[in-house]
Each structure stands twice: as structure tokens, then as C-alpha cells.
Backbone:
């Protein structure tokens, strides 16, 4: 049976919006969100054994089921494959501290950037909001990020380097938890599981969005409903989003984003194996191996602050981005475009060719298309999802919209 539901009435639409907000609050298991914080895409090579026959359910009911899910314990394997139409980011990961010798190969910010492209396998585990682990499995090595109480460890077996930080979100002794910003222990706002991707999609949903139930599926051996999210507007680079929701506990098991241009999914996140029982406590224990180089987050932060300008010597044109004159949003919903004015009309991303690191130049050249219009001339940097028009007079237009939509916005702004 493939449940489906038609357009909602006005009252139903209001209820649906309220459900989305609740889902966005509760949908992400805190432990995995806090520890994983890592990838732009997860993909399944998931075997389906036919669509299960499940009772009919409306989109509103399915969203409420997701919001009501209190599952905070799980372990499993997630397959990742991301095709955003951009070059591999592996060569860019070292442009920060590693380049001037001040960094650590175990630092999450650099290592997790590699997950933005290509195929990867992750092993994940979570036990409540303060215990979580994500391991990136490679051919001959493994990278693990572990959160256990107020301790955060990362370990790269390839280099035998470890990274250690205190999680500032823990209780500070006054009965309150910090913001998590004190030590910069974990990357922020980077989803890495189907739940987290679904939360982002639902939070962005509004009256420009169609949300329906589009059948059933089986993911990692579990029966699931398919929640389908689509833009009602034309001009978006996003065609549709499908979230496979566990029929029993409401946990998203798979997230698939297909671009409006067609072809295979740009982002596909899914479990190949999943177990919702309590992981063994030892899963979250970590002691650096003998001989491992250990970098403390506070030391790395201080070193980075002292070397920032030295590390980017010769690349001054990349500096000063905090001086944007302002940011305006054009349009709404899936077609929203951010317009950013740069100081003095200086293009923020076009330093002299000789000043650009080779990896960065290769990356930018692969993305750019020259365009002209009433606004003048500029370059559109494109991916399968997010595009940006950078005009020669220093204005930036960026959004999950087509190149034509960006050029139109720039012309109308003149």
C-alpha cells in the first residue's frame, strides 16, 4: 500500500506548520548532533525488499510522530555519498592550521570537511544528550570523534594524532549548561544523520512548501513511511526531499535530496544497519594510544589566533569579510536569495592569481561561469544545490536557486 494525502485545508496547514516547528525542536538526538556535526551528505546503498503494507497516515500525523519520538539511544552504520557537483574538498582541508604547521590532523574542523564530497561509511552510536561517537571508516585507517560527558576526543589512526577539548555545554556548577561556544570543541550546525537533515528541511518549510506522504519503504530492515517535501515555487535548485521515517518509533532512517535538474541524488543519508538498544558504556571511553601526539583545543585556538595573519600572508584579499556593509534577503521560501554588499565594492574572492593557493584556484575555476546583464558582469559559482553570483563591483547574490534566478535578482536590484 502506498499512502498518499492531498492538499490540506487552511486549518490543517496551520497544524502542519506547528508540527514542523515541534519536529524541528525534537527531531535531532542531541548526542549524535553534538558529536557528529560533520557532513553535508550521507548516502545509502540500501537494499529494499519491497514496499511494506502499513496503515495510512497523513503528513501531519507523520510529522507529529517524528516530533514525539524520544529515541536517544542507537548504534549503527551510515553510508555516505554526496554529489554536489564540486571538486573533492580533501585538498582544501589542509589550508588552515595544517598548512603552517600549527594544526592537528585530528582536529574535527579539517577532517570532517572531507565528508562534503564522495562516498564514506560512518559508524555511529548515541546514549542520551551527552554521549555520542562517530567513526569514519577508511581503507586502512579510522577517524573517531567521541563525546562523553564534558570530554570531547578526536583520534586519527593514520597519523596517530589526537585532539582533546572540553564541552562548554556541560553544567558549569551553577545548574546551568553553557552554550558550547567557550572552547569551540565541536563544529556547529553541520548535520550528519538522517534525523539532522530532516530537522533542517522541516525547519525551513513554510507556505511555499508541499509536504505529503509518498508511500512506504524498508530501510536497514525496518518498515518506514516516506515523507515528501517539495518546493511549490519554480526556480529552486531543490527538486524534492524524501525522509524515510521509522513506522514504529518515528526516527528518520534515510534522507534523500534530489536536485531540480534531475539525475542522481545530490545528498542521500541512510542507515544500512541500526539498533535502538543502549550501546555499551565502553563505546564512549577513549585513552590516547601510546606515542600519540595530543593537541589541546585551547592551545590550538591560541596558536591559530597568533598565526592567522602570518598563515594567510600573501592572501590579504581573503581577509576582512567581516566588514560586509549589509545583508539583504530577496524573495522568500525556497527562492530566497541573500544579497551581500562588500566593503568599498571590493570583490571578496578574486585575489590575484599568484596569490591564490593552487588547491583553492582549482576549486574556484571548476565552479565559475562568466555572466553579464544590466548589473554589469560577474561570475556564477555553481553547485547542484547552492549557487552564488559574485559581481565585479563586489556584490554577492547567493541561494539554492538557478543561475538564471541569480542574474534576474541582480538585474532587478539595479
Residues:
Amino acid at each position: 500500500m502506498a499512502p498518499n494525502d492531498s492538499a490540506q485545508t487552511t486549518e490543517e496547514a496551520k497544524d502542519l506548520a506547528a508540527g514542523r516547528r515541534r519536529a524541528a525542536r525534537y527531531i535531532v538526538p542531541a548526542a549524535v548532533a553534538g558529536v557528529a556535526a560533520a557532513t553535508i551528505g550521507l548516502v545509502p546503498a540500501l537494499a529494499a525488499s519491497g514496499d511494506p503494507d502499513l496503515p495510512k497516515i497523513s503528513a501531519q500525523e507523520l510529522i507529529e510522530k517524528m516530533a514525539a519520538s524520544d529515541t536517544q539511544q542507537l548504534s549503527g552504520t551510515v553510508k555516505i555519498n554526496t554529489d554536489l557537483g564540486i571538486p573533492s574538498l580533501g585538498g582544501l582541508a589542509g589550508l588552515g592550521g595544517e598548512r603552517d604547521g600549527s594544526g592537528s590532523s585530528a582536529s574535527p574542523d579539517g577532517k570532517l570537511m572531507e565528508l562534503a564530497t564522495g562516498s564514506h561509511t560512518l559508524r555511529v552510536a548515541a546514549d542520551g544528550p551527552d554521549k555520542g561517537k562517530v567513526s569514519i571508516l577508511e581503507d586502512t585507517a579510522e577517524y573517531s570523534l567521541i563525546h562523553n560527558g564534558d570530554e570531547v576526543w578526536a583520534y586519527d589512526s593514520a597519523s596517530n594524532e589526537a585532539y582533546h577539548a572540553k564541552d562548554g555545554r556541560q553544567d558549569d556548577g551553577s545548574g546551568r549548561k553553557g552554550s558550547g561556544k567557550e572552547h569551540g570543541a565541536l563544529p556547529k550546525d553541520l548535520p550528519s544523520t538522517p534525523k539532522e537533515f530532516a530537522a533542517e528541511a522541516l525547519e525551513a518549510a513554510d507556505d511555499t512548501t508541499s509536504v505529503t506522504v509518498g508511500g512506504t519503504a524498508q530501510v536497514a530492515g525496518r518498515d518506514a513511511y516516506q515523507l515528501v517535501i517539495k518546493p511549490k515555487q519554480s526556480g529552486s535548485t531543490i527538486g524534492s526531499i524524501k525522509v524515510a521515517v521509522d513506522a514504529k518509533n518515528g526516527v528518520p532512517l534515510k534522507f534523500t535530496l534530489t536536485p531540480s535538474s534531475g539525475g542522481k541524488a545530490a545528498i542521500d543519508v541512510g542507515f544500512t544497519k541500526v539498533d535502538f538498544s543502549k550501546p555499551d558504556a565502553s563505546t564512549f571511553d577513549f585513552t590516547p594510544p601510546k606515542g600519540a601526539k595530543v593537541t589541546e583545543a585551547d592551545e590550538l585556538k591560541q596558536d591559530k589566533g597568533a598565526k592567522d595573519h602570518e598563515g594567510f600572508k600573501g592572501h590579504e584579499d581573503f581577509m576582512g569579510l567581516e566588514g560586509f556593509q549589509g545583508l539583504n534577503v530577496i524573495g522568500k521560501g525556497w527562492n530566497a536569495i541573500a544579497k551581500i554588499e562588500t566593503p568599498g565594492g571590493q570583490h571578496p574572492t578574486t585575489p590575484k592569481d599568484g596569490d591564490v593557493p593552487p588547491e583553492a584556484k582549482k576549486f574556484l575555476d571548476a565552479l565559475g561561469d562568466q555572466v553579464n546583464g544590466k548589473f554589469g558582469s560577474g561570475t556564477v559559482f555553481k553547485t547542484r544545490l547552492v549557487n552564488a553570483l559574485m559581481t565585479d563591483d563586489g556584490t554577492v547574490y547567493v541561494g539554492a536557486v538557478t543561475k538564471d534566478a541569480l542574474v534576474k535578482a541582480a538585474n532587478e536590484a539595479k
